[in-house]
UniProtKB/TrEMBL annotation:
Annotated positions binding AMP: G222
Enzyme kind, highest EC tier: lyase
Protein name: ADP-dependent (S)-NAD(P)H-hydrate dehydratase
Xref: NCBIfam families: yjeF_cterm
């Protein structure tokens, strides 16, 4: 393995050596959403289905649960209690009950908007998780502010930060180098990290995907990535391998859209329909 300052390139050939060897597809539980951001859970959930979730469970703010169930008829949807401002409340942990412990993978964060409620929710949810956990969006901010929240799932976390969230995870340190930042976050939180195409594992292994482009910075794209990781983890126990696969599939889906949308007209929802085509191409070459 190359040293951390020279990551191993993520290529189609490498990923084909890492095809999941498990045929069973487990349950993915996605927890997120709010009054103001109801669609993030939908993006993550469909992404998880596209990459291997056998069963999908979506947990979101109660006012949007029925609509979400109609929009994603493949999923079981759970309505969660809200705060007065429309954020998912910490009391959601009581509603989720055994779902967290039974999930093959847990994705928390897409669409959550209240940092205090999110931190309190993680404090109650993460000790109940038995499988790998993907943290995104406000869940990353909560972890950065309260690193001890990750203790129950140390070694079982995947973090998918953008550069702003990465700064929180580094305790306020500016992100000047994506490779060095990803390695530092992985070490600090004992987690696998995908930061802007760089995947770092806590044991020092590092990979980099050069397939991505500026169009993937479109709103909601990070929710899709988190769901892709969650879906792959439902059928592959290797966190680093699943995260490399997810990042490459995400980037290749974006590449397929460029001829039709350009780099500035891309929508995150459009990535979802490209994912199956990318997976077929990667697995058949």
């Amino acid at each position: 393995m190359p040293p951390p300052d020279r990551p191993e390139p993520i290529t189609s050939a490498l990923l084909r050596e890492w095809l999941p060897d498990r045929e069973d597809h487990g349950t993915v539980l996605v927890v997120g959403g709010s009054r103001r951001v109801p669609g993030a859970v939908l993006l993550s959930g469909i992404a998880a289905l596209r990459t291997g979730a056998g069963t999908l469970q979506l947990a979101t703010a109660d006012r949007h649960a029925s609509g979400l169930g109609l929009a994603v008829p493949e999923a079981m949807v759970v309505g969660l209690p809200e705060t007065g401002s429309g954020a998912v409340s910490r009391e959601a942990a009581d509603v989720l009950g055994d779902l967290v412990g039974d999930a093959a993978s847990l994705v928390v964060g897409p669409g959550l908007v209240d940092p205090d409620e999110t931190a309190a929710l993680l404090e109650r949810l993460l000790p109940a998780a038995r499988g790998p956990v993907v943290l995104d969006a406000f869940a990353l901010g909560a972890l950065g502010t309260h690193p001890e929240l990750g203790d129950p799932v140390r070694g079982r976390m995947v973090l998918t930060p953008n550069t702003v969230e990465a700064k929180y995870l580094l305790g306020g340190e500016d992100v000047d180098d994506h490779v060095k930042a990803a390695v530092a976050i992985a070490d600090r939180h004992d987690a696998v990290v995908n930061l802007m195409g760089v995947v770092a594992a806590p044991d020092g292994r590092v990979w980099q995907d050069a397939t991505g482009h500026v169009g993937l910075g479109t709103s909601g794209s990070g929710d899709v990535l988190a769901g892709l990781v969650g879906g792959l983890l439902a059928r592959d126990d290797d966190l680093a391998r699943a995260t490399c696969w997810a990042g490459h599939v995400h980037a290749m889906a974006g590449q397929r859209l460029v001829p039709r949308t350009g780099l500035t007209g891309m929508l995150a929802r459009e990535l979802l329909d490209e994912v199956p085509h990318v997976l077929v191409e990667l697995r058949s070459r």
